[in-house]
Structure formats: structure tokens, C-alpha cells
Amino acid sequence: MLVLVDRTLMALRWIALLAPLAPGTRPSIGALMRIFFVSTFLGTVLPMSVGADAVRAWGLSRAGITTHESLASVLMDRLLGVVSLLLMAAVGLMVVPALAGNSWVLLAMAATLGACALGLAAVFSAGLAVAGHRWLERLPEGRVRRGAVRMIDALQAYRRHRGVAAGVLAASVAVQVLRILQAWLLGLSLGITAGAAAYFAFVPLILLIMMLPITIMGLGTSQLAFAFFFAQAGVDWAPAVALSVLFIALGVVGNLPGALLYAFRQRPV
Predict the structure, then answer these.
(1) pLDDT by residue (tens digit) across 141-189?
(2) Pairwise CA distance, residues 79 & 58, whole Å
């Protein structure tokens, strides 16, 4: 049940991000929900994160939204999702101070923080947008230049709708809490005795690693991440790896509604 709730909340936060971009041409809620759930299903067999995002942007462009607006909504959704994970991970470091002494953890968080700061600046900094336009003026006139200009303008639309971005960020934090609870309940079913605090400390960091577009569904990276982090709480590698497998399997279950929608589609997404 929790996984279906978090998928629905993820869909609604993305739909909310379309309001500042295409207020008059946005497809129906039903069509957007279908695009989202089908993209999550197809993303199951594509490189983590990037695959589902690409399918979603493509489906949205086929529904009448311009390509740059489609990409902007997906990029903003992904950016706020990473920011929410970073916030939760920061809380985790306070819960388990021992992690703050691990140079690899700190390096990964610093790199993520830098990328998020750059992304947020690209969205909310008017000065950076002006600088970007001036730099693009040096390029020859053509599709690349026009596309880049439109992409900057689409992302800058969120600068005038900060309330929407703040609401989506809050929803993203709620999604992360739901995913942590899912992992905790799975851990209880396996007899893992680590407390809930360990899950709040470890799972956001694990999810950041799983988002790397290296493997399908995060297979391999998730097993290593679960084993490494839960070892800090005294959990043996075998139950930690079992937890990682169940966590991925639960995500696949959450993607099954998209499989049904794709199977009974009337036209390609």
C-alpha cells in the first residue's frame, strides 16, 4: 500500500510542476497519470532514473507539450527529488554521527550538494539566465541555440512560481519518508533489529547511490550500498543484501500499474 501511495504522490508532484509551464495546453490529469505510470514501468528495464525520465518527457511531448517544457518539468522534478534526498541524508548524518567521519560519504554528499546548488541556480537565478542568454548569442543561429534558449526560459518559469517548487519539495520529502518506512517494514519482516533511526540515516544515502544511471533498477549498486551502510548498524551482509532485493522488488510491484496501462494502450505513449 505504501508503495502505491508514494507512486501516486510522485505523479501528483510532477503534474504540479507542469502548471507554470503549460497552463492552457496541459493534457488531462488522467492522461498525465498514464504517462507517469507507463514511464515508471518502462524505466524498470532502462538505466536507473534516466530511462524513466526520458520516457516521461517523450510521452509528454507526444501529448502536445513542447519538448523544452517537457524536459524542464522532468528535470525540475528530478532536481527537487535529489534535494529532498540530500536534506534527509543530512538529517541522517545527525542521527548517526559516525557516518560524518566517513570521507567517501562526505565526498558524495559534497558532490551532490554542488550539483544541486548549480541546478537550483540555473532555475532561480535571473542573473545566471541572462549570462546564459548572452553566451548563447555567440553561437551560430540554429536549432541548438534556439533549443537552449527555450530550455533556459522554461526552467526560469519556476522562478516566478516558487510556491509551486516549495510545495513539490515538501511532497518529495514525504515520498522519501514513505520509502524509508517501506524499507523499515521490509527489514522487520527479515528480522533485522536495527532501529528506525538507522533507516532514516541510511536509506536516503542508499537512494542517492541507486539513482546513478549505471545499472538496471539499481541492481548491484543497491546491494553494495545496503551491505555497506547497514554494516554500520551491525547488520550482517546477508540480511542487508536480502533487504536490498526486497526493496527493489517492492519498487517493481509499484510499477505494475504502468504495465497494465501500457498493455491496454490505444496508442503508443
Answers:
(1) 778 788 888 888 888 888 888 888 899 999 999 999 999 999 999 999 9
(2) 18
Q: Is this prediction's pTM over 0.90?
A: no
Residue that has been written with the C-alpha cell 518559469 in this structure: 157
Q: What's the helix, strand, coil split of the chain in %, to 5?
A: 80, 0, 20
Written as nine digits, the cell of 208 is 542517492
- Cβ contacts of residue 205 below 8 Å, gap of 6+? 89, 92, 99, 105, 108, 109, 225, 229
Q: Which residues contact 106 (CB under 8 A, 6 or more apart)?
A: 100
Q: Return the closest-CA partner of residue 53 out of 72, 66, 34.
A: 72
Cβ contacts of 138 within 8 Å, gap of 6 or more: none
- Record the cell numbers describing residue 124, joined without a space: 532561480
pLDDT tens-digit series, residues 47-71 = 656 677 878 888 887 877 888 888 8
Nearest to 32 by CA among 241, 191, 261, 214: 261
Cell of 238: 546477508
Dihedrals phi, psi of 142, to nearest 5 degrees: 170, -175
Q: At what angle do helices 196-210 and 162-189 cross, to 10 degrees?
A: 120
CA atoms of 142 and 159, how far apart (whole Å): 27
Residues, the chain:
269
Question: Taking a C-beta distance cutoff of 8 angstroms, is the pair 138, 131 a contact?
Answer: no
Cα→Cα distances 94→97, 98, 210, 228, 241, Å:
5, 9, 22, 18, 25
C-alpha cell belonging to residue 95: 542521527
Cell 491496454 maps to which residue?
264
